[in-house]
Amino acid sequence: MTVGTDSRDTEARIPRRTLEHFTARSLVGLIMVVVAGIAFGVLLALVRFRFGPLYDLDHGVAESVNGYVADHEGLLDVIRFVTGLGGGLKVWVVSLAVAVLLIRRRARLAVFVIVSGLGALALEPTIKLLVGRLRPVVDVPVAHAPGNSFPSGHSLGSFVVYGSLLLVFLPAVSKRWRPLVITAVATLVTVIGLSRIALGVHFVSDVLAGWLLGAAWLGITLYAFRLWRREEHRREPTLTEGLEPEAADDLEPAPAESKVLPHPWVETAEILVGWVLVLGALFGFGIWASYHADGTVLAALDTGVPRWFAEHRTPMLDGWSHVASKAGDTHTILAVSLVFCTLVVARWRQWRPILFLALVMVGELTLFLASAAAVDRPRPDVPHLDQNLPTAAFPSGHIAATLCLWTTIALIVLARTDRWWRWLTVVAAVVMPLVVTTSRFYRGMHHPSDLMGAMLLTALWIGLLYVIVRPNAEAVVADAGDDLQHQNRGVRRFARDAA
């Protein structure tokens, strides 16, 4: 009887301790949310009634910082880059994070990110409209921003977006590195806010208000998520464990991948030697096509094609060619590469294809710059629609980058899925280079032999890296075992939850 009583007492104590544990943590979190909300309300009142000391601090800092930043162009470039991390980039970051979470079948975490982001997006313009505070007026404007000033949308949005992503993905970070990651995110949010002051588009109180409102809103969404877990009788983790510690297996990028490169020093030496050989081939063809091909069909094409396009220009086609040409510029190529790499890691949980794409694009850029400088070919003898380009004509960097990117994407995707949409990557690998090539010819920037140089670069460089890196070496295994791996992760999660 005694044993049975002790057993019942133990079973009664466990839920009671769990409830007390949850209540204590929830109370602390609720207090933090209330404190942040009250602090924001007080700051709002001080701004509305133009409290003297705060008014002097805001305007004094704005003037002094503006005077210093305006005289340092290099520092200004860094500040503009930092402030960009808190601007429209947040939308892309959130979209990618949600895509990753949905691919990893963590819909609840995706909902948390979406709700947090949408709440911040709605709070900023609403409060700005209610307060109606004008932006700072400085002697030397170095940046311009539309709308009202209070609170700082960059500060509010970065706090909520990067804070919510930190809470979501923290379980995938090793415990040893979590303090460093938390510090890095806190530093990022801080410097984004300070950059708005440095650019003279926000007062100190605007940035503080953005942080306080962001903390309050993120605290509310976090509290709601914990209540959601409580309804499912799950334990309440500490903030340093993230939102769902049991999601660590699903959030880890590539837990089961073998060594990316079996013999890294050997492969590195092979890649360097191959790079030199590809550069030699480009240089040889470029010198011949540029200066020694007179009287050949290629020379006739190099002269006739740019002139034909120049004779058929119209204002409408000028605009379309500008848009099409942008599809092959550095910013577009980098953006597509980052998005694709993120989705590859999320879906196939391997770093090898990412390394392959990175080496392809870095090699393309360096080969293009080196060969362009060595050959130094003039642009076609027609009016140019793009002015002051820093490189020579051969080979076409836009076309080479487009060919390398979309060909690499097609090679990776085709080996990893048998779904119908894989053929869309093949279509893109054909259509995108054609679009960019036509636009570059139309704008008078390249000869047909520049296109041939880009094709030569793509074929030699991708072929070399494909043999050395073998990006699809584990593709069949990864694809075949995907469902089984997911089932195993589900069993492990069920076991942890039951325990």
TrEMBL record:
The record's CDD domains line, in alphabetical order, gives: PAP2_like_2 (cd03392)
Query: Can the keyword Coiled coil be found in this entry's annotation?
Result: no
Residue ranges crossing the lipid bilayer per the database entry: 26-47, 78-102, 109-131, 151-173, 180-201, 207-225, 271-291, 330-348, 355-375, 395-414, 421-439, 451-469
Identify the InterPro entries for this entry.
PAP2/HPO (IPR000326), PAP2/HPO_sf (IPR036938)
Gene3D superfamilies with a match to the protein in the record: Phosphatidic acid phosphatase type 2/haloperoxidase
Sequence ranges assigned to domain Phosphatidic acid phosphatase type 2/haloperoxidase in this UniProt record: 107-222, 354-466
Keyword line: Membrane, Transmembrane, Transmembrane helix
Any keyword Transmembrane?
Answer: yes
State the Pfam families in the record. Answer: PAP2
Cite the PANTHER family for this sequence: AT30094P, SPHINGOSINE-1-PHOSPHATE PHOSPHOHYDROLASE
**Name of this chain's protein:** Undecaprenyl-diphosphatase
Tell me the lineage of the source organism: Bacteria, Bacillati, Actinomycetota, Actinomycetes, Micromonosporales
